[in-house]
Write a structure and sequence with these properties.
Layout (H helix, E strand, L loop, with lengths): L8 H10 L6 H24 L28 H7 L3 E2 L2 E2 L9
Antiparallel strand pairs: 1-2
Helix pairs in contact: 1-2
Enzyme class: ligase
Family: Belongs to the GatC family.
Protein name: Aspartyl/glutamyl-tRNA(Asn/Gln) amidotransferase subunit C
Length: 101
């Protein structure tokens, strides 16, 4: 889909297939129009973007709020592990999810 091309019904049907979405004929027509509007809006934003404005992830300055680490009383490890469904060598035992060692 080039910038100057119109989004076709085939484009929408192909995208729906890739996304594994089941869409009706009416929805294909509706989505084609909506995608046209979205792409036109994105193109307008691209026209406005100035080279002297750095890219940013937020529109306001962000500051992480953190607190200092302090040692505090916590639960006893043996008590916690005793309540766990499975424990081994002083740690929680969980099912393997990767085939890696």
């Amino acid at each position: 889909m080039a910038d100057s091309q119109k989004i076709t019904r085939d484009d929408v049907a192909h995208l729906a297939h890739l996304a594994r979405l089941s869409v009706t004929e009416e929805e294909i027509d509706q989505f084609a129009g909506q995608l046209e509007q979205i792409l036109a809006s994105v193109a307008k934003v691209g026209e406005v973007a100035a080279d002297d404005i750095p890219p940013m992830s937020h529109n306001v300055p962000m500051t992480n709020v953190s607190r200092p680490d302090k040692v505090a009383p916590s639960l006893d490890r043996d008590e916690v592990l005793a309540a766990a469904p499975a424990a081994e060598d002083g740690r929680f035992r969980v099912p393997r999810i990767l085939d890696e060692e």
